[in-house]
Amino acid sequence: MSFFRKLATKPWLEQDTMDNPRPADIVPAETAKVGLFVFLAVITFLFFLFFVAIHMRADYEDWVALSEPSLLWVNTLLLILSSVAMQGARSASRKGETNAVKVNVTAGGVLTVIFLLGQLFIWRQLIDDGYYAASNPANAAFYLLTFVHGAHMLGGLWVLGKTGFGLWAGRRVESVALSVELCTTYWHYLLLVWLVVFGLLLST
Amino acid sequence: MAYVAIADRDHEQPLHHPHSFITKWVFSQDHKIIAVQYGMTAVGVGLVALGLSLLMRLQLGFPDSFSFLTPDTYIQSVTMHGMIMVVYLLTALLLGAFGNYLIPLMVGARDMVFPFMNMLSYWFYLLSVIVLLTGFFLPGGATGAGWTLYPPQSITGGTPGAGGGIISMLVSLAIFIVAFTMGGLNYVTTVLQARCRGMTLMRMPLSIWGIFTAAILGLLAFPALFVAAVMMLFDALLGTSFFMPAIISQGESSGTIGGNPVLFQHLFWFFGHPEVYIVALPAFGMVSDLLSTHARKNIFGYRMMVWAIVAIGAISFVVWAHHMYVSGMNPYFGFFFATTTLIIAVPTALKVYNWTITLWKGNIRLNVPMLFAIGFIFTFIHGGLTGLYLGNVAADIPLSDTYFVVGHFHMVMGVSPIMVIFGAIYHWYPKITGRMFNNTLGKIHFWLTFLGVYSIYLPMHYLGFLGVPRRYFAYEGISFSETTQAVNANITIAALIVGVTQLLFLFNLVWSLRKGKPAEHNPWGATTLEWHTPDKVPGHGNWGASLPTVHRWAYDYSVPGASQDFLPQTMSSEEAISLGARGTEET
Hints:
The structure holds 2 protein chains of 2 kinds.
Chain A: H1 3-7, H2 31-58, H3 71-95, H4 98-128, H5 137-168, H6 173-203
Helix pairs in contact in A: 2-5, 2-6, 3-4, 3-6, 4-5, 5-6
Chain B: H1 21-26, H2 31-61, H3 71-107, H4 115-134, H5 165-193, H6 206-238, E1 248-249, E2 252-253, H7 261-294, H8 302-315, H9 331-359, H10 368-391, H11 393-399, H12 403-433, H13 439-466, H14 484-515, H15 573-578
Antiparallel strand pairs in B: 1-2
Helix pairs in contact in B: 2-3, 2-4, 2-14, 3-5, 3-6, 3-7, 3-12, 4-5, 5-6, 6-7, 6-8, 7-9, 7-10, 7-12, 8-9, 9-10, 10-12, 10-13, 12-13, 13-14
């Protein structure tokens, strides 16, 4: 039943008998999954607003686009690979292959850590080359967006880290299947966000 | 594998009762304890904000009489009063406290779906309050940027707190938003997932609809404030110029290059306007339940009320720039936002009519919660109508930044939600504590507050018509009319009386905790689930051995033929017929 059909029901006419209560029209999905999707909606709004704000700022004359360091392409590749690894972990966990899950989750985590270190390295490089945040709004936007994206990756790493360490400590794959699945969704989502961020940086 | 609802696998999840004092009362994951923690912190910081408002009133009513009031302390008080009241008191109290307390109890859940995150939400909130209050003790004091924190002035030297206070404010807001997001995820997911058997969406009490919609608004609107706060922190700490324009002061450049201060205003109000409804919608919901319960009558037009809540929530995202008519926007923007502003008045007016019609021919019981609920209808109509003036560009421009605006928004989003909060605290006090409050004190509290706020804010509209500007420390001999100063002195006296009256309220709450008459199980004869828990004051897990089952909507008051004037949501139609209720078969 669609949401709008639901809103059109007349609850004052419904009377349930003792052994036949109406089923509550809950969302038929794992609670954590519903929570994650609500959270993704929040992140979508957050990044959307960052994009809009930066886009508005970029219209001003003093905006001098910075030439993206080529290392960013490597980092993007790392993030894509980590997403692929997470996808591998998800399909392995569906098949119940504990070892494959272990390897893929670890690979995904390590690749993400390298990605974050790479981002830090790029910051270092830019600062050494004199691209300070204060010297141009385009530089500031670059630091801002990479910082916010990185912070979200860090949050994901914390959850993934718990899952990964649990696996190495001998937890069975069934008990972590849900977190592996949710982490995969989150990784794909943040990859998408990164691609949009990267596209935005390239286009200005 | 098909998903099994939480309510249908209740027996599979044993409850882990906390044992130590710390896990039970301090780091508790029980939604009721967290609600009380949220409530007490919010009221505590709200008292600070109340004190600040009295400082402002002392200066305005009796200028040059108090040596401890300087222009800096005045504008710092304005700023902190505004921000604390809107964000740290109202939002935290309505969603953090009432949302936490009511959602699981009213939808028939054992707790929030993510209890640990719920606990974290409270501790982040407390941290944000502490960070905010440290602003007072930093060199330069709290920020004096005005509660809207508009750049460039908020982070430019010369504004009080431009060095430290504004940083603590922005950091605190960012932490608050993280706290709110954790809470909001809980509120939304719990309503979507953890309702008990039979509790369909359209059987939820309007309180839950209001809180649910407000939580969604908050989740989507607070990111705008977060973006604004983070970008302003960059400007303040790293010297970037997202918002800071090129400034040349006394022949010297500030070093910033051309930023866009109006961008901040857009971000701020993209949060700021939904924020009005984040505060208003839970109040709308709860007042509907209060009116219906104490008038012994079903709420008039339940479906319309739900639709209006959803519609207001949706439209509230496209009205923000009506706060910016004087910012130099394209006039066609003003036209658009004036139109949407007037459109949002339609569902809002619809709700007011439905509240009034709910009272019509009701068996009204003037209990203290009911007095506050009826008081709310008055103050809300009043504040709402002046909103229609200010929503029109032509009327807004001369009234901008005058006391008319101050009168308007205090009536509509200060006093009105506070009236509901008082009513709701009195209404649910017996549930939370198991004791009744003192009725006489409650009535005195109501009348002094209700008449008091009118004597404060009604004259402000008049001052606004005279052109008295807001946020001014002193008027330096400008007399807008012969009576301006006398009016201001009167307002101050009324404000002092109302301020002191709130001590009566706090005294009543504390005194009744020990000395109050033990409450009956369901003292108001309400239908909703929270009054039908096995224990009078619900314990951990709320529902004892088994979850409740809901058979009807939340508003079966004075059903024709029935021998009692309310049918609880848990009552099946067989039981209702045995009480003589004439069946309302589906037609």
